[in-house]
Amino acid sequence: MAENQQFNQAMDQLIAEYQPALEMGLWIGTQSDCLYRYQSHQYFPAASIIKLAVYRYYLQQIQEARLFLDESCVIPPAQLVGGAGILSSLPERDHWQIKELLFLMIALSDNTATNVLIDRVGLSEIQASLTDPAIRLERYMMKPEKNKENQITAAASASLLMACLALESRLQITPSFFAKQQYQEGLPGLLAEADLPEFQMYNKTGRLHLIEHDVACFKNNQQSIYLAALSYDQEETGQGIIWLRRIGQLVYQHFFQDSRSI
User: Fold this and answer.
1) What are the Beta-lactamase class A catalytic domain coordinates in residue numbering (predicted)?
2) pLDDT tens figures, 50-77
3) CB 98 within 8 A of CB 73
4) Is residue 236 assigned to a domain?
5) pLDDT given for residue 2 in this prediction
6) Sorting pLDDT into bands at 50, 70 and 90, what band is 93?
7) Is 214 strand, coil or helix?
8) Is 262 within a domain?
9) Helices and strands (H, E) in the chain, number of each type
C-alpha cells in the first residue's frame, strides 16, 4: 500500500509539473484494477489511437469467421492518402491481404491501410460496433470533415488495447503486431533502446499538431500494466512527448525495475 502511495505521489507531481502547458488524460492499471487516473474520461481528438477501434473490429470479425486474414483487398490509386505509412509510396502494388493491412495500420500507423480497411466493411458498420460512447469514429484518416472528429478518452484507449491484445492471443497472431511497432518515442521512449531482459512493450501512438498520445502495455513474466496517456499542448511547448516518456519511465521503475508485482 505504501509503495502504491509513493507511485501515486510521483504521478501527482508529474501531472502538476506539466499542467500549465498540457491538457492531459491518463489511465494506468491492470486488466482488473485502475492504479492511477487523471481526467481519464475526458475526450481528446483521437489521432491514430482510433485505429485500435478498427483493429479490434477486424479481430472480432476474424474470430467469428466473418472475415479472414488472407482475404485480398484492392487499393485503387484514389484511395492512397498521405501522412503516416508506406502504401502511398507503393502505388505499383494494388493487392494486399487483410493481414498485411492490419499489420501496416498498427506497426506503421498507415493511413491508407486504415482507410481501405474501414471502406471494406463501411464506416457505419464499425461505428455500430462501438458500444462504448467514449470511442467516436466519425471520419477517415487524412480526410477532414466539418464538425466531425474522431475522439476518445484515456480509459477507453486502455480498454481497446487490452481487447486487441487478448484477441491477438486467441487468434494466435504471434508475434503481436504491437511488438513490431515502429513508433516508440512516447511511453517506451526512455526504455526502447535499453537492455531489459524479460520485459516487453506493446504500444500504439497517436500524433497530430499539438497532440501527443500513446497507449501501451508493459509486461514481464509476472504482470502486465496498461497505460493510456493523451495530451494536448495548449501552449505549443513541445512538452507532450517528454511527458509521455516520463510516465513510461515512472511505471517501469515502480512496477518492473525490481520485479515488484502489485
Assistant:
1) 36-230
2) 999 999 999 999 999 999 999 999 888 8
3) yes
4) yes
5) 59
6) confident
7) strand
8) no
9) 7, 10
Per the CB < 8 A criterion, the answer to whether 91 and 149 are in contact is: no
With a CB cutoff of 8 Å and minimum separation 6, the contacts of 74 are 94, 95
pTM equals 0.94
Please classify residue 70 by burial: count the beta carbons closer than 10 Å to its beta carbon, then call 0-12 exposed, 13-18 middle and 19+ buried. Answer: exposed
Query: What residue type is assigned to position 89 of the chain?
Result: S
Amino acid present at 79:
Q
Range of the domain at 247: 2-255
Task: Indicate the DSSP class of residue 118.
Answer: H
Using DSSP, state whether 39 is helix, strand or coil: coil
Q: Which of 162, 157, 177 lies closest to 224, judged by CA?
A: 162
Q: Could you tell me if residue 235 is inside a domain?
A: yes
**Does residue 45 sit within a domain?**
yes
Give the CATH number of the domain where residue 125 resides.
3.40.710.10
